[in-house]
Every structure is written in structure tokens, then in C-alpha cells.
Amino acid sequence: MRFAPLIIGAGVSVLALVGCSAGEGGSGEGAGHTVGATTYSRSFEFYQDIETGMDEEAAGEIEYRFQDPNGDLAAQTAEIEDFVSSGVDLVTMVPIDSDAAEAAGRMVTDAGIPLITVDIAITADVGQIAHIASDNHEGGAVAADKMNELLGGAGEVVVINNPAITSVVDRETGFTDRLAEVAPGISVVASQSGDSEREQAQAVAEDLLQAHPGVTGIFAVNDEMALGALQAVIAAGREDTISIIGFDASSEGIAEIASGDSAFKATVAQDPVEMGRTVTRTALAVLNGEDVDADIPVPVTLVDDTNHTEYAQ
């Protein structure tokens, strides 16, 4: 999941995508299958890219009814209710809260409608047929390898997380597990939620830096919070002594890496367009009566000063 807000201007392609938010279909008008799709929030470019991949892969076989709850759990539940009452053939869902989404998920499956979760999982088994997401655990592991390299195998690290979202919990677990394995000289001295918000992450980072003055590394489970942590590091005058690693390869994160003098040293790239294509391929398989894997991971890649130009936007 890429938490990097996109500043939306008058771009026609973005407006065309957002135009589906009132229950209108994407490409595939008149298609044989109607799929209700509720995202997390289109204020994040990551979720726009997932919808782009879904729509491109549909190729006239699926009519998507894209909905954007904009991070509001009640709005997402209302969207699910609408999908169920209108009798869509399948529902795809990026749960806003992994625990709280259980009721909405059961609403879908109790109605006999197949449910695919995307990027963020529902904690409970509600009968969802598949979950499609980046290999978040592996992403955390490659971030740990990079942190070990940056810190030379010794130092103190803090993690800025968001425990309400399973995908980013997996990132933290992958990071801490790998760090313990390859870098016993590096200690994770604190882990605290930044609620996936830049300002909140900045405040959290400020507090953590005061509480742990020996910190030399920060891992944030998405770039939005990594960028907030960067502001705290700059304010503390510690850009030369702290290394920050994010997750999502957002345009702002890549720009920081490209600058060559930022504390923001690396990020983990997901492939949201490919994730969206995978969602559509999986949905079509389900609708055609085929068996699919319960968990479908999408590969991730570390982005740093050696390859950032490949990911520049």
C-alpha cells in the first residue's frame, strides 16, 4: 500500500478515474460481469494505480463499479451494502481497518458473493476467496538488509508503524525478524504508530528522537510516514547522523533519494498497476468457476541510490 498523497491538478486521466466514484463503471461498459470495487482512498496515488491496472486488464470482460470511501470506514460499509443490494457478481475490497472490516466482509460472503481483498487483509476468515497484496514481509526483510548496510551492523533503530493495517504489520515483522537474524548489533528500541499520516508521524518521530537520542536509523512502514519522520530529523539537525527507510517508492520519496544529501536513504517499491491487473485476472478466474490461490503475493524491490532513476516519476 502506497501512502503518498498525490496532488491532483486538472489531469484528464485522473479525473476520468475519479469519475467512477459515484457508482459508474470503468472500462467494460456492457461487460458480462459487474464487480463492485471499494478502495482505501484515492488521495493516495498507490490506490489510483491499482484501479488503473484493474481497469486496463478488464478489457471489456468486467464492468467495474469503483467506489472511494476516502479512508472512512462507515462510507466503505455503505458502499458494500450498495454492492450487495444491487447484486454485483463479485466484490473487491481494500479494507480500511483489518479488524473492523469483518462485518462488511461477512455481508458480502453471506450474500453468496465472492470477495477478494486487495493490499490490506481482513483479520478474520469471513469466507474471502483470495487476498492479493505485495509480499510485505519480504519487503520488510529487504529494508532490514539495507538498514544493516547503512548502519554498518550497529546502532539503534525506531519503527513508525500502523498496527490497524495487516499489510504494514507484515512489513514491520519482516523488518524486525530479518534485522535480528543478520544484525544482532542493531537494536529496535521503540515502535510506535504514526496512523499513516505525515504530521502524526512527524510528531511521533520528534518524541522518539528525544526519548532515544542514540537513534541512527528509522524504518517507517510507508513513505508518507517516512517523509514525516524526515521533517523531524531535519528539525533536530540530524540529517547527517540518521538514515531513514520508507516503503512504497512514492514520487516524493524517490526525489529525496535522488537528491543525494537527504536522510531518506531507501524505500521499497511495490507494483500497484500489476497488483490491479492481478486482481482482474483473479476475479475473471473466479467468475469463470476456476480455482485460485488464497494468497497471491506481488513481488517488491528495494530502491536506493543505485537504481532510483528506474522508479522516478
TrEMBL record:
It comes from the Bacteria. Belongs to the bacterial solute-binding protein 2 family. It holds the Pfam family Peripla_BP_4. This is Periplasmic binding protein domain-containing protein. GO terms for cellular component: cell envelope. Keywords: Signal. It comes from Jiangella asiatica. GO terms for molecular function: carbohydrate binding. It is found in: Cell envelope. The keyword Signal applies. The keyword Nucleus does not apply. SUPFAM superfamilies: Periplasmic binding protein-like I. Residues 39-290 form the Periplasmic binding protein domain.
